[in-house]
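Subject: sequence -> structure tokens, single chain

Hey, anyone have a minute? Need the predicted structure for the following. Not urgent.
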Amino acid sequence: MKYLLPLLLLITACNHSKDQTAHAQLPPTSVPGNRLEVEIPVEEKVELEDLNLFYLTVYRRDSSANVNVFITDRWPRHDTNLIIEEKYFTEDFGNRNYHHLSAAHSKIVLDSTRFTEEDTLTIFNVDRGVIRRYAVTDLKVIAQANPYDTHPPYSHWAFQVGFEIPDIYPMDSLLFFESFVHIGPEQPFVEGEIKPMVWEEISKEDLTELTKDQQIDLTWANDTNLLPIYHHQNGKWHIFRNGTDFKPENHYGADYEVWAIHEDSVGVISTTYLYDGESQSPAPISVKNDGDPNGPYQWCGLLFKGQPPVVTNLVWESFGCPYIAVMKQEDNRVWIHCDNWH
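Reply:
Had a minute. Here:
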């Protein structure tokens, strides 16, 4: 997906959207009791709850900038973690405050985030696969002044903390495609199975034919307010996107739903609700023959070892951290850590 990675740094501290979308529910169109398990044949399996995902970030695209992985979201905020030297409180709070931490301060960061010498930082690019792996202890730890706190009084907590990534440059074309970063002892990514996602608009008749063996109530498709319906096929998986009038209890109503079925199963396997508001908005989609030069916006396929396929980038977050949707009934979001303080 082509897009500007600097926008990732504009994420502001607020967990509203995470609370708002954290509990996906099956829509009334599904038949839960008849669903079969879809087996994912693999030699290895990672547990989704064990993943530590981050983004590559860069502030500006020029030869003097650096590519970083900020881990501020994992850095506990308490007085034993003070790592910023006093001189950085007396200068301008802009990019000139970007600096490498001393060995002692770097150790404080690693200890407080519980990263060890056994952990590896793996960079997976959706277009190229695994492109880099580094031992966490071999990377330089950096602090970067928060661009939003430009006036005194300055605080230790107004700095972003992370790793500087060598050998990747801000002008590298791979940065125009989404890259996920995992920190941990394992390499969790599946190579070569995630592909650009191009949707196709379909009619109600097409939807009926595609779901004829699924025992799904499609009366909602008579409501023109919930149209158009989009479809994407990935092997035996069929993924749909349409409007919805679903309203969770004590939450705002959803605007769109993305749901998946499998040819060897019965009923809706996964549903992800998308909300359009101040905190998040549905990401654009690439539609067949639409001529959009900026896509693909989503990527679909196997991404994590031993897990069902995923869909990336369904929403654009303004407040809160993004997620990857997994084609499973429960716990079907993998959250990506972000600099959620600023």
